[in-house]
Amino acid sequence: MTMEFTDRVSRVEPSATLAISALATELEAEGADIVDLSVGEPDFPTPENIVAAGKDAMDAGHTGYTTSAGILELREAIADKLADDGLEHDSDEIIVTPGAKQALYEVVQALVEDGDEVVLLDPAWVSYEAMVKMAGGDLTRVDLSETDFQLEPALDELAAAVSDETELLVVNSPSNPTGAVYSDAALEGVRDLAVEHDLTVISDEIYKEITYGVEPTSLGTLEGMADRTVTVNGFSKAYSMTGWRLGYFAGPEELIDQAGKLHSHSVSSAVNFVQHAGLEALETEAAVTEMVTAFEERRDLVVDLLAEHDVDVAVPEGAFYMMLPVAEDDQAWCEGAIEDAHVATVPGSAFGTPGYARISYAASEARLEEGIERLAEEGYL
Ligand SMILES: Cc1ncc(COP(=O)(O)O)c(C=O)c1O
Description:
alpha/beta, 2 domains, seven-stranded mixed beta sheet, 13 helices, globular, binds pyridoxal-5'-phosphate
């Protein structure tokens, strides 16, 4: 029998990072010591108090289904956290999801249909493109690589890319893969365009808690944005909880009603005891500060080490990634770097920006030093 697959899935390519991780696995099986700078997750364990809260919740019997949108205590705690950031949302304007990825998927499915135009700021996290394509949308991409990945100097390019036909704009600050944090002036520029063209904007704030000396503004706090912004966040990065799968989105009630249908008919709810652990996470401060401090020290270390080899990078102000300028054929560069130097990175073309490789500095200082040294020794810097 030959199965027939939908256009929806056929339109989407497997992740470009797969070739790199396949190579890494192959080399590791042959005994190679790979310095893995390709991972998108903190290298710290989930803080103990959060793990304990998850276990306690299981012991207390929180193992059944919950309300589809998530337990009320967690939605109220999220509403309080958002209020601290200046975003006003009632608990019924929030849906708790298994990861921010599911939140984004549901929002895109609820807003984008065949032929709708969606604007991305490149380089952009890999899954936005796939999600939009699966929903049938068409992508318009604005390249930020000429402006050190900053949005403010590229507002004219953004203005040229959006029109009354645009359905959705996705903004991710701090950004994966660049670590850029957009200035208030940049966000105000986004607001002006969104109001002028009546756009909905997704503000993916999953790295908001991981910044170095800057306070990112939440887009939804700007005048005129409350009823057109969907704020997405999650627990994976700030609390090192990637495998727990917990995230959320907050937005206007009519979006919550529509996306809520998708949510209840697909995942039902996020995992019950994980939601209870999430409540504890929102109370956790010291462990988060410790992780952010470590990331900042590693960022400085990598920037300094690269400078010693005359490599200039746009210094990230958030998240734990930076874009390394490499050969034009970045896929070949990344494959070579892993084969020759045994250092794994992700090609910039996976994010829509060839000529770069994304380095994740969610690795120990010793491994980061080792990785940079090997890249230099093998002639990759
Ligand atoms: C920009 C961005 N958004 C969303 C996600 C999804 O995170 P999760 O589904 O683990 O909450 C990620 C994960 O890498 C990300 O980098």
